[in-house]
Amino acid sequence: MTTTLQKIPTGYKQTDVGVIPTDWVVKTCAELGSFYKGRGISSRDLVPDGLPCIMYGDIYVKFDTKFSSPDFRITKETAAKSSMAKSGDLFFTGSGETAEEIGKCVVYQGKKNIYIGGDIIALSPNSNTDSLFLAYLQNSPLLLSQKANLGQGYTVVHIYTEHIKSLKVPLPPTKNEQTAIATTLSDVDATIEKLSLLVEKKKNIKHGAMRELLTGKRRLTGFNGKWKMKKLGELLDYEQPTPYLVKTKDYSDNHTVPVLTAGKTFILGYTAEDTGIFKNLPAIIFDDFTTATKYVDFPFKAKSSAMKILVPKTEETNLKFVFAKMQLIDFKLGDHKRYWISEYRHIEIATPEPEEQTAITNILSDMDAEIEKLESQLTKYRDLKQGMMQSLLTGKIRLLAK
User: Candidates 3.30.450.30, 1.10.287.1120, 1.10.10.650, 3.40.30.10; correct CATH number of 173-222+353-402?
Assistant: First the structure.
């Protein structure tokens, strides 16, 4: 059997962590600084004013790679029982729900010292290691896979200080090159954060517009007719998804027919099944169990019989307007029963004349288009960052001359 060896480019070498430049080195995290453990601090110890602190849950849900301003405070008495960290120190989570997320890392960049709670493993890097570079490296696929392999446990996965110390990392020969890489990735992160905030702002603006336009609190110019109350059942027909249910779980991006669910996932995947495709569009899919809804304007297969497929009852029904109104309804969840027929279809909504419905939905659609464009840009920048991390953190692309 013949094995084809991968050709290593000139100026690069094969190592335990893959192909890296010849002037880069591979070290263990134990060689990069001193380790210590967080201790103490529970939710009962938090106070409105006091000394800054962080607990391991914050690393999972609040911060990504770096942070400067912790949200929580503790008293001097609690701090005396905890561990103090300084700017530039790295914090690792010692436990998690899955091996893939274990050992998530953030670097603290605040000016004041901070106190760290239990289940946090901390690293104070030595002077010739850029802490932000090391944080990006710790959250790269190369290091995440190493940590996943070291995680122990099932219901809760743990990783220990000795495991973190044993991690192997590729390092540029100078701190200047490390800093240049970290700065480049940080600039991309700043753009991502700016776009994320803009998307959130636009969503809030749209939500406010929905509250005003869909309730008649603010009327568009040229419209002053009285709104009429109509039941959802007067506006919508429903179809059980049984004839359109997907028969296989063999989903693939190479297939063309989307398989939908009414939950948060929405598109579960794509199937090759070419029969039983729902094409009476547009439609609203509605989950009786969760009351999640989606507006759909493309052919699809259904995943669950719990989904109702709602379609316009007459040509006069503006489905986009009804869907928008449904987003403002507080559907009362029952005891895991299906309520569309018995209850939800009897809910009344205020509706203007068709022309005003169209004018309102046009405005909301323009807002949706703007948000989708921004979200597309956000996705591109996130993909760009992943590609840059892969290239910069392995030396495939160099930022400084040797």
Answer: 1.10.287.1120
